[in-house]
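task queued by scheduler; priority normal; single chain, no ligands, no partner chains; default sampling; output format set to structure tokens
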Amino acid sequence: MEPKRDILVVREPWSADPLAWIHRAEAKAIARELGGPLAVYSRDLPPGRALLRLSDPVMRRAVGELAVPYSGPGRAALERCYDKLAAHRIVTAGGLDAPQTALADSGTLPGPPFVLKPRRGSDSLGVRIAETIPSHQRNADHLVQERIVGREFTVALFREHVGMPIEIFLPPGTPYSFLRKYAWRPRRAPVDDEQVRDATRRAGRLLGVDWAARVDFILDASGRSHFLECDAAPLVGPDSAFAASFAAAGINRAQQLDWLAEMKSPA
């Protein structure tokens, strides 16, 4: 792979937030792959080719305030996907199946046990199975989602390019939580499933994905796929599910890095 020394890989400042640790480490790995420099994010980035590798909260701020072109998600797509209720409404209106979902303060909720999760967030922080909603979470910042027991898949997406579904082998009914993603990582393997690939492509179009994304599904006992969420600022490093999904579809790492380095004008 030829080094791309003109690409500046941008990471966030150090903080005690575990998301910052994860994304700073990923940025370092990608800078090593590209053979280019690494810098801490500033809204005054120099003109040139800047690849943003930031956690979702910092990425949201960055894409809203940058005045120079960058490589990363567009603001509108990121906001649509970051708001899980908005994403759910968009994809179901477009004809995709998804678990019944409601605000935690709604009068009509899925029956327990259900999935309780933050309305806005990333990396499955705060996702759990619950029978009741604690009073401090009974608000419009949390969602209650129908619990579907089945096979979980994640699929890489880059604009119209779709990777191979990666099955996440979890105990039946177990949510793919933050700790399971990063501490107790389950086995995963590619599965050639055109239904899931087609649903991924449709979800990306409906949500206006304009850069890299990762789309999650669960297949019920009948084999029907249900959209869970779309991460429009996923981890894309060499060990990520994004990289594995495209590698399984025959897209080598050099091509992946070329895509990721494509520039976008600021919003």
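post-processing summary
- The chain has eight helices and 13 strands.
- The chain has three domains: 7-72, 78-98+149-253, 102-145.
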